[in-house]
Amino acid sequence: MATDTIVLGAGIVGISVALHLQKAGRSVLLVDKRGPGEETSYGNAGLIQREGVYPYGFPHDFGALIRYAMNNTIDAHYHWNAIPKLAPFLWSYWMHSRASQHEAIARKYATLIEHCVSEHDALAAEAGATGLLRRKGWMKVFRTAAQQDERLAEAARWNRDYGLNYKALDIDALKAEEPHLDHGSLIGGLHWTDPVTVIDPLGLSKAYVALFEQLGGKLALGDASTLVQQGDAWSVTLADGTKAQARDAVVALGPWADVLTGKLGYKLPLAVKRGYHMHYKAQGNAVLNHPVLDTERGYFLAPMQQGIRLTTGAEFADRDAAPTPVQLARAEPIARTLFPLGERIDPEPWLGRRPCTPDMMPIIGPAPKHKGLWFSFGHAHHGLTLAAVTGRMIAEMVTGQKVFVDPTPFAPARFG
């Protein structure tokens, strides 16, 4: 089977890459071991984070470090046996998260974030999926004045520096927006108004795939680890035993990218943050109008088509270690006091894996050692947010067009 481009990995990033390449006139084969959007792209909080100019950093305040060392929080958890392997990544991550470094990263990162909503809007409109998008933004709710003051001051800086819009909510305004929260435990909130939310992330992935196929794109089951370079072409073996060949190959394998790139001679500093979710029915006539972060407790509630989705923070563990949803067990009883959650809907907690780099920025661009090989992974918490932007960037690079966002800060070559 011959095609112009093979895209390896059918998460939301790989789907968006394949779709943009197909729109640009390339014939594209999208390859994965599973169905499109069924891994990490399924389990996110459904946020297209227009406000997310500062990627999630490693805390530097002493109190947070002490809490994390105790290993009993909702927002972070670690497996002791994974720490030796993760230590170099965590050290580099902590260094890049220093205030001056984080600020410099944000200035580069903002060039991606500023297009996240408009690029998804364009694809969703073409795919007939705008009904999955909600334009209500999302909220942080606060239990303490110290946290509220810190986050509102931060929002004011981001508004000044990047034009991000927000509303400060006193308790009465919060009651009006979210009448079914337990307001006795809260003092107010912060409403980010620019972001768009997705009520069915898997549904959005499937809509983009349907558009890709309508434009002539092809899907296939296959093992990305079989990718080899043969002369000026790339070849991958599909599940039915046939071989697909293409001039260009794009690695969009998310948390599994290093398995393939390592075989090809690249030592990229990738790590994985794992996370869990569970869906719940709402009790009675209770309604959650916005996605809500319980700031001090470190869990997230999001209204989805499946129900209310409770998501946890980061678990630092081996990528393929057995699930240990202790953060979900810690979060659920607290979440039940904040919002009237009913019975669980899912039979088991869902586990996802976020592919991360120590400088908190994705890897987007040409592989330094191989002609016709392209990397598109490492988006951490912002895979959904940046998928459409990344897809357009890769398509423009592969087809030799002027790239609408300067790709230099995100190039694989920055890691040497």
From TrEMBL:
- Domain of life of the native organism: Bacteria
Matching entries from Gene3D superfamilies are given as: D-Amino Acid Oxidase, subunit A, domain 2, FAD/NAD(P)-binding domain
Q: Does the keyword Oxidoreductase apply?
A: yes
Could you tell me the keywords of this UniProt record?
Oxidoreductase
Record domain FAD dependent oxidoreductase: where: 4-397
Q: Which SUPFAM superfamilies match?
A: FAD-linked reductases, C-terminal domain (SSF54373), FAD/NAD(P)-binding domain (SSF51905)
InterPro entries membership: FAD-dep_OxRdtase (IPR006076), FAD/NAD-bd_sf (IPR036188)
| Official protein name in the record | Amino acid dehydrogenase
Please give an example of a GO cellular component term from this record.
cytoplasm
Signal peptide coordinates: none
Drop me one GO molecular function for this one: oxidoreductase activity
